[in-house]
Amino acid sequence: MSDRWWFCLKHMAVEPDEGCPNKDRMGPYETREAAANALKTAADRNQDWKREDQDWDGDD
């Protein structure tokens, strides 16, 4: 069993290390569940970044 998991953007499915080329995948993730949630995780991080960017006042 693989220690790392990937989310394949081509097949919209979770894969072990042996799978599609990395250019078509997100990861690696430590668990199958984390890989299955890859798109939600990315969307949440993008939303967080967008909020932080809006809050930035440029005084750094």
From TrEMBL:
Highest taxon above the source species: Bacteria
Region called Disordered, residue ranges: 38-60
Start-end of Basic and acidic residues biased regions: 42-53
Annotated protein name in UniProt: SPOR domain-containing protein
Source species of the chain: Streptosporangium lutulentum
